[in-house]
Design a protein that fits this description.
There is one protein chain. This protein is an alpha/beta fold. It has one domain: Histone deacetylase domain (Arginase, Chain A, 3-Layer(aba) Sandwich), CATH 3.40.800. Helices cover 35% and strands 11% of the residues. It has 11 helices and 8 strands. It has an 8-stranded parallel beta sheet, with helices on both faces. It is globular, with a radius of gyration of 19 Å. Pathway: Ketone degradation; acetoin degradation.
Length: 393
Amino acid sequence: MVDRTLVVWDDALAAHDFGPGHPMAPLRLELTARLARELGLLDAPGVRVAGVRIAPDELISTVHSPAYVAAVRRVSADPRLVDVAHGLGTDDDPVFAGMHETSARVVAASVDCAEAVWSGAAEHAVNVSGGMHHAMPDRASGFCIYNDVAVAINHLLDQGARRVAYVDLDVHHGDGVEAAFWDDPRVMTMSLHESGRTLFPGTGWPEETGGAGAEGSAVNVALPAGTQDAGWLRALHAVVPPLLRAFAPDVLVTQHGADAHAQDPLANLAVSVDAQRSAARSLHDLAHEVCGGRWVATGGGGYDLVDVVPRVWAHLLGIAAHAPVPPATLVPEAWREDVIARGWDPPASMTDGSPAWYSPWEAGADPSDPVDRAVLATRRAVFPNHGLDPWFG
């Protein structure tokens, strides 16, 4: 029997803990899972929740070098060690006991999602613990140890997918996934992020469009700091749908980092929960339009642990389950009580009260507007590679 939606979740995924004070606290995953349960999303018709395994080294090494995997294993077994050459033991990526095992579970969760969608066992699949898009083949970077998304995409290619599209909504450039497929025309990576002029990792410029033989396969929209809902959604819709339709992927993989939100402490965009919900709905609809509904979705960044991340990812789960949560829905009281008991002030509802409105590109562009300039730079750099007009598509 085909599941409409597969959700890979196990409490062990929340063991990915860099320690006290680190922005990527496992609380955000714990609260997301509990909120989804309280909203009834994990029990919705057609939803199956699957446990998680530890990915074998052979699978991880389809993207990461064996030497790097061995380095992660060493520091994982003895957290007194550091290996700065491999990015292990830095402020961003401190070492902790069991680092390899917890990171390998995240990889397995995303690969299992990809396998379920590709095999037809599920139409959509979600791993909110995934989206570790900064990890490079030979080093950790930006809170990311293993690049689960890149391993999952590589698995899809190994299983016979001819083309895979990846859309990254995290406020930070999806540099690790882009690097993994820089020379591969079978994979289109699209990243909508805050400009590297003001944010880590300092990359993701519109002129970065892919390696020799893969020109136009890397797509970067570098938005100015302060971009709000209308500009963010306008940029997304001006770039992603026309390219997805032209590329015609077999599978759509998306990363839903929640750190573009106005309250995120590590970035400078001003995007609401409502706009991120709207973006997830649009990507869901595009998956049905361009690739028969084959959609793999992951989490990603997001460091407002209570007010933002659980709501954004609960909305994602609801959309993937074909049971979208109306924005005005009140947050379940049991969840609120749990949050209060932990010493936090919980949100009251599933909305920020934003209309999530935007003016479509087709209504006319304004070259004096910084968001439109960013969008036009991307369209000029990439669209001609796909037979599209930069101004009119």
